[in-house]
């Protein structure tokens, strides 16, 4: 099945031989982790968000992440920080980076 936005298609590796989607996800996760660390307020699910961001960061270190696990992490992060408006931009960036990988294989 073809996807109109290019999702699900293989991308040409970047200059270092790494998939640019992985590089983009790594960058987005890093930015959100920094924003979360700098956010002064404590909220109930902050630890969940930090743990799942760490898991996503680890996935990007090992090459192309497992899509279902990556999406599960995204849902947990969104649930944990979704009501914190100061983090909405970083969350959207992570979501967009995850979407570049397409859906799970059928």
Task: Provide key terms for this protein.
single chain; 106 residues; mainly alpha; 4 helices; globular; disordered N terminus
Q: Residue-averaged pLDDT, rounded?
A: 85
- State the secondary-structure class: mainly alpha
Estimated radius of gyration: 14 Å
- Our count of helices gives 4
SSE string, helices as H and strands as E: HHHH
Overall body shape: globular
Sheet having the most strands:
none
Which oligomeric state applies? single chain
Report the β-strand fraction as a percent range. Answer: under 5%
**Which range best describes the helical content: under 10%, 10-25%, 25-40%, 40-55%, 55-70% or over 70%?**
55-70%
Written description of the protein model:
This protein is mainly α and 106 residues long. It contains 4 helices and no strands.
Summarize the structure.
This protein is mostly helical. The protein contains 4 helices and no strands.
């Amino acid at each position: 099945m073809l996807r109109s936005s290019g999702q699900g298609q293989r991308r040409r590796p970047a200059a270092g031989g790494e998939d640019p989607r992985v590089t983009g996800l790594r960058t987005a996760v890093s930015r959100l982790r920094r924003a979360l660390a700098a956010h002064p307020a404590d909220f109930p699910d902050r630890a969940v968000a930090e743990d799942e961001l760490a898991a996503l960061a680890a996935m990007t270190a090992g090459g192309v992440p497992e899509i279902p696990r990556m999406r599960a992490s995204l849902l947990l992060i969104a649930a944990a920080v979704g009501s914190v408006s100061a983090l909405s931009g970083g969350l959207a960036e992570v979501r967009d980076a995850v979407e570049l990988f397409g859906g799970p294989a059928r």
